[in-house]
Amino acid sequence: MKKTDVNIWCLGALLSAITMISCSTEEPLSQNNEVVSQTLENKAIQKGHSFYSKPEQPYIVNEILFDKLLLDASCERTEFSRILSGYFEDLINDPVFDLDLIIYYSDLNRKYATHYRGENYYGKNGEFNQLAEKRMRELTRFWQLEKEIYLNGQHTESLDDLELLTDMIESFDRSVRNRDEAHEKAMALLELNLASPNIPENPYFAMDAFTRSNGLLVIGDGLLQSLIEVGVEEGIAFTAVLSHEWWHQAQFENDDTWDYIDEIPSKTEKNRFSELEADFAAAYFMAHKRGATYNWKRIEQYFTLSFNVGDCLSESDQHHGTPVQRLMAAQSGYDLADEARKKGFVLSPEEVHQAFLDVYETLIQCSGKCI
Ligand SMILES: [Zn+2]
Question: What is the Å distance from ligand 1's center to 175 Cα?
Fold first, then answer.
């Protein structure tokens, strides 16, 4: 299967954002769903015609947000989903809440992070800059991929900067004909921003983590913030997301020869395979003594806290595997690094891929600790 230009969306977080909307320990599921749906509908109706141009294609965040099937999914409320729920509730309750504006901003910021080339910083105040440089150097040496990989940070502040916002609108908003018009629109939007405590400051606008086959990786500040809020240590949060995304580049590079996935019948299962392998390889790198050298407790903490959102999205194409499967994939990757510890060598991507194939069938049967 040749992937020419594929986005891989790696964000369990926003996938789970909807699950937390639909899940509450206090309220019955259906009642809670209704409240949210009505709120969204009423707010949308109040606004009438839209000032914002819609994205040409719906993207996963919005597909998921408004997929009633997913809204009806049953799931368990966790600390992580509570944090994401808080972000979303803040947005819904914002004095200038406008669904179109939220979609418009998310779309602009995602496109900007996708197409931007140039100087970067990571974390709201560049607090991940040094770690990013170190980890990227390590990962480059560790996997030795052919493609040059580059990492774009994604920041909510970009949507509050007149020049950047004008750039985004000029580049990606088809309703605007020239830079003057883009500038005018950006000025109007900054007025709205001023009236809002959440727009665009809410972490929701920088929740992306994805990779593209051209070597691009994107990590949003909002995603990192949410992981840190749930209790993941900063360095682990950044390293885990980066090394997971990095492995998708190995998958792109070996797409012609790694054929196992071609035999998997459904898109959902293909996706689960890719994601669990990325968790496996990320844990291998994170544990390896020539990698990030984290011990199992810290790796386990990341996987337990960040993806323990219940198995609410098993029908979604973006399904990453159940929390248990993800944890088991990470455990297997860790074990592989641990075996190599005494020998000290680094397995090639091909060898790691083969090692994953050895455990995959067992892993997807896991509903408890089973490897
Ligand atoms: Zn992924």
Answer: 33
